Amino acid sequence: MDYLYTFLIGGGICVIGQVLMDRTKLTTPRVLVILVLSGVVLQALQLYEPLVNLAHQGATVPLPGFGYALAKGAIEGAESGIIGVIQGALKATAAGITVAVAWGYLLALCFNPKPPK
Description:
Elements: H1 2-23, H2 28-44, H3 48-55, H4 57-60, H5 63-77, H6 82-110
Helix pairs in contact: 2-5, 5-6
Protein backbone atom coordinates (compact mmCIF):
# COMPACT_ATOMS: atom_id res chain seq x y z
CA MET A 1 0.00 0.00 0.00
CA ASP A 2 2.94 2.34 0.59
CA TYR A 3 3.82 2.31 -3.11
CA LEU A 4 0.21 3.00 -4.06
CA TYR A 5 -0.07 5.99 -1.68
CA THR A 6 3.29 7.31 -2.87
CA PHE A 7 2.24 7.06 -6.50
CA LEU A 8 -1.25 8.50 -6.01
CA ILE A 9 -0.27 11.45 -3.85
CA GLY A 10 2.91 12.30 -5.78
CA GLY A 11 1.04 11.93 -9.05
CA GLY A 12 -1.84 14.01 -7.72
CA ILE A 13 0.53 16.85 -6.86
CA CYS A 14 1.98 16.68 -10.37
CA VAL A 15 -1.50 16.64 -11.91
CA ILE A 16 -2.42 19.77 -9.94
CA GLY A 17 0.67 21.53 -11.28
CA GLN A 18 -0.03 20.40 -14.85
CA VAL A 19 -3.67 21.50 -14.67
CA LEU A 20 -2.60 24.92 -13.38
CA MET A 21 -0.22 25.29 -16.33
CA ASP A 22 -2.68 24.02 -18.93
CA ARG A 23 -5.96 25.57 -17.77
CA THR A 24 -4.84 28.95 -16.46
CA LYS A 25 -2.77 31.77 -17.88
CA LEU A 26 -0.17 31.31 -15.14
CA THR A 27 3.38 30.98 -16.37
CA THR A 28 5.43 27.93 -15.37
CA PRO A 29 7.57 29.83 -12.82
CA ARG A 30 4.44 31.15 -11.13
CA VAL A 31 3.01 27.65 -10.87
CA LEU A 32 6.30 26.47 -9.36
CA VAL A 33 6.17 29.25 -6.77
CA ILE A 34 2.53 28.43 -5.97
CA LEU A 35 3.44 24.78 -5.38
CA VAL A 36 6.40 25.61 -3.13
CA LEU A 37 4.37 28.14 -1.16
CA SER A 38 1.52 25.65 -0.78
CA GLY A 39 3.99 23.28 0.90
CA VAL A 40 5.13 26.06 3.25
CA VAL A 41 1.58 27.08 4.14
CA LEU A 42 0.38 23.50 4.62
CA GLN A 43 3.34 22.76 6.89
CA ALA A 44 2.74 25.97 8.86
CA LEU A 45 -0.85 24.80 9.40
CA GLN A 46 0.50 21.33 10.32
CA LEU A 47 -1.39 19.70 7.45
CA TYR A 48 1.55 18.53 5.32
CA GLU A 49 3.23 16.29 7.91
CA PRO A 50 0.36 13.73 7.88
CA LEU A 51 0.61 13.67 4.07
CA VAL A 52 4.34 12.96 4.32
CA ASN A 53 3.70 10.20 6.85
CA LEU A 54 1.22 8.61 4.45
CA ALA A 55 2.96 9.08 1.09
CA HIS A 56 6.64 9.38 2.12
CA GLN A 57 8.64 10.28 -1.03
CA GLY A 58 5.44 10.91 -2.98
CA ALA A 59 4.92 14.00 -0.84
CA THR A 60 8.52 15.10 -0.23
CA VAL A 61 9.98 14.91 -3.76
CA PRO A 62 7.55 17.22 -5.64
CA LEU A 63 7.77 21.00 -5.22
CA PRO A 64 5.43 21.28 -2.22
CA GLY A 65 7.88 18.93 -0.50
CA PHE A 66 10.61 21.56 -0.93
CA GLY A 67 8.34 24.13 0.71
CA TYR A 68 7.58 21.63 3.46
CA ALA A 69 11.31 21.10 4.09
CA LEU A 70 11.92 24.87 4.18
CA ALA A 71 9.11 25.45 6.66
CA LYS A 72 10.04 22.48 8.84
CA GLY A 73 13.67 23.60 9.04
CA ALA A 74 12.66 27.18 9.78
CA ILE A 75 10.26 26.09 12.52
CA GLU A 76 12.91 23.86 14.11
CA GLY A 77 15.48 26.67 14.02
CA ALA A 78 13.06 29.31 15.34
CA GLU A 79 14.07 28.73 18.96
CA SER A 80 17.48 30.25 18.11
CA GLY A 81 16.01 33.49 16.78
CA ILE A 82 15.92 34.90 13.28
CA ILE A 83 19.37 33.57 12.41
CA GLY A 84 18.21 30.12 13.52
CA VAL A 85 15.20 30.36 11.20
CA ILE A 86 17.45 31.07 8.23
CA GLN A 87 20.01 28.43 9.22
CA GLY A 88 17.30 25.82 9.82
CA ALA A 89 15.70 26.41 6.43
CA LEU A 90 19.04 26.28 4.62
CA LYS A 91 20.20 23.21 6.54
CA ALA A 92 16.99 21.35 5.74
CA THR A 93 17.20 22.05 2.01
CA ALA A 94 20.96 22.12 1.41
CA ALA A 95 21.13 18.67 -0.21
CA GLY A 96 18.32 19.40 -2.68
CA ILE A 97 19.76 22.77 -3.63
CA THR A 98 23.24 21.29 -4.08
CA VAL A 99 21.97 18.51 -6.34
CA ALA A 100 19.97 20.97 -8.46
CA VAL A 101 22.94 23.29 -8.92
CA ALA A 102 25.37 20.45 -9.64
CA TRP A 103 23.11 18.78 -12.23
CA GLY A 104 22.34 22.12 -13.82
CA TYR A 105 26.06 22.84 -14.15
CA LEU A 106 26.84 19.38 -15.54
CA LEU A 107 24.04 19.60 -18.10
CA ALA A 108 25.18 23.09 -19.11
CA LEU A 109 28.63 21.65 -19.81
CA CYS A 110 27.21 18.78 -21.87
CA PHE A 111 24.72 20.70 -23.98
CA ASN A 112 24.80 24.01 -25.82
CA PRO A 113 21.32 25.53 -25.56
CA LYS A 114 20.11 27.80 -28.32
CA PRO A 115 18.66 31.17 -27.35
CA PRO A 116 14.89 31.50 -27.92
CA LYS A 117 13.84 33.14 -31.17
